[in-house]
Amino acid sequence: GDSVTQMEGPVTLSEEAFLTINCTYTATGYPSLFWYVQYPGEGLQLLLKATKADDKGSNKGFEATYRKETTSFHLEKGSVQVSDSAVYFCALRMGGGGADGLTFGKGTHLIIQP
Amino acid sequence: NAGVTQTPKFRVLKTGQSMTLLCAQDMNHEYMYWYRQDPGMGLRLIHYSVGEGTTAKGEVPDGYNVSRLKKQNFLLGLESAAPSQTSVYFCASSYSIKARVLELYEQYFGPGTRLTVT
Q1: Residue pLDDT, tens place only, A22-61
Q2: Nearest-CA distance from A13 to chain B in Å?
Q3: Which of residues 28-57 of B touch A (CB under 8 A)?
Q4: For residue range B57-71, what is the model confidence (pLDDT) as tens digits?
Q5: Residues 70-109 (B) with a CB less than 8 A from some CB of A
């Protein structure tokens, strides 16, 4: 079945450091890809998405590019802030008219130190 | 708009007790979902619904039942709680894929219910 693999955390960085969180996927077709963020005590919020190969999703300084050849969707940010501390989930959804939900990775806990 | 709301926020049950978690959305979404989140496991889909009166099983449906009597509400029931059901439960909703282009697909999540079964 479909699956998402992302780097396990926690990932600890200093403020203003460069961030990369790796995400790779396995799918039988061509999925849409998402990054969700979960701040402490809250639900998940969509951070960015990409629906086809070579698309780049971006939001709040975060970027991720849909790489079909490497089946990857790595999350990057050039200069992280303490407020970026959260758990980040990579997820995929297959196309078509079905409603069978998202397949999530296990999440990466990011800690930014001042 | 309140978005997606969940009731209750916290609950402690004894093994064998029953309870119902309520999810409500005010965005007129067709699709609704229940996930559970466990440490090191990410989110896993329990059940979902594509419309009023329709439900379907997800990845981990055993021990749970659901109902969608009204479009805006999606209920998750535990008939006989077990310690293995200790988890954080998230409800989500989205527009129908058929009604919207895939590029607009997004699931909106509630704040979660933390359930402990002792």
Answers
A1: 999 998 878 889 999 999 888 899 999 998 899 999 999 9
A2: 21
A3: 30-31, 33, 35, 40-45, 48, 50, 56
A4: 998 999 999 999 999
A5: 90, 92, 94, 96-98, 102-103, 105-109
